[in-house]
Amino acid sequence: MSETLHSLTDLIERASSRRFLEVTPPEDLGLADHQAFPFLALVGQTEMKLALLLTLINPKIDGVLLIGPRGTGKTTAVRGLVDLLPEVPRSRCPYGCLPEDIEIGGQDAVCPDCARKYGEGESLTYLDRVRLIELPLNAKIENVVGGLDERAAIHNRLRLNRGILARAHRNLLYVDEVNLLSDDIVNAILDAAAQGNYTVQRGPLSATYRSRFVLIGSMNPEEGQLRPQIFDRFGLRVVVRGLDNSLERMQAYRCSIAYRTNPRQFIQVYAEMTQKAQEEIQTARDLLPDVTITPQAEDAGLRMIHQLQIASLRAEITLFEAARAYAVADSRTEVQPEDVNAVAQMALRQRRSSFMQGYFENQSREEDELQNIIRSSNNLTVEKKGRTRRSSKSKTKKPTKASHADNSKTS
């Protein structure tokens, strides 16, 4: 009998508490078939799992950064999302034309072929699963943004191949060890994330690719820090720690052994719950446009950001969009202060900059000094004008008695 679920968070808690089943090794056929560890089989790490699920529901959260030591399940959790990914409408046109382009900009906003199809009532899109695109740590810039097709070059042809960033359009882009990326690749990711597209120029060839993706990164702070420019691009920040509870650690060990022994049988244990979770995510994603934020929730969020003295406006975007996803995950269409509080740590963590705070304090002292100098200068100017007026009045000659007498004689 299927279990009754009240919310997506309830599903996470029930799945995490499920005990593994004894499994037997399968027959070895020598075939390679990667089976991802079930996301719902992860033990503990509630905040990490919640952050990833909220990002699937609402891409406007702008991704997740997982920060923690090795062996805490960061990469396993991200790769486990493959069976939970929702469906999105994709364009049938090579230029990426969508119905909303016509609704916003008219038929001139799409190519002539799509304008004709739209007028005839044909569909411009089809439903397709979101994909998880991984960016390898050893990837070259040509692999990331695209480059010349070597096979075509052999036949004296020039053709560009799409890069990883172009394939990540409307998908999840996962970067493991994101803090170890080279500067040129980081710059390419930043440019694509900021603009939603990027241009590749290779000799006489040039192409502009769409590249709107949800960025997910993981890093071990022991191995180096992350550049502030790309750190700010991650909406939610999760500090992943090791499991403290000995029972949870033992359960994680047993699940790991069961998965390694027979991945298919272990995955089948969580197949029903995984299917339910995927449906919940799809339903929440479809309902998301109807979710509104109450004034009380707005006040609660803005008050926290003001008290933390966060300068970046991305704090409000991430906080309120994550709260909308949290509310709709529980099938509610109004965000309350409790929803804001539930996601505040993930959304506002590590957004303050001690350097910028010191910079602004020094700048404030300089501004005060400049204002004092300006006020002193204004006071001196006023005093000089006053002395000038008094001296000009004193120089004005008064009529003498003789002059009065002469005037009387003349009259």
List keywords for this structure.
single chain, 411 residues, alpha/beta, five-stranded parallel sheet, two-stranded antiparallel ribbon, 18 helices, 13 strands
Outline the structure in words.
The protein is α/β, with parallel strands linked by helices. The protein has a domain at 87-129. The chain is built from 18 helices and 13 strands. The protein has helices at 8-16, 46-57, 74-79, 99-105, 112-119, 141-145, 150-154, 164-167, 183-195, 228-231, 246-261, 263-269, 271-287, 295-308, 314-329, 337-348, 354-394, 401-410; strands at residues 64-67, 87-91, 125-129, 132-134, 146-148, 160-162, 172-176, 197-202, 205-210, 214-219, 236-239, 292-293, 334-335. It has a five-stranded parallel sheet. The chain has a two-stranded antiparallel sheet with strand order 2-3. Helix 11 (246-261) packs across helix 12, helix 14 packs across helix 15 and helix 14 (295-308) runs parallel beside helix 16. The chain is globular and about 105 Å long. The mean pLDDT is 82.
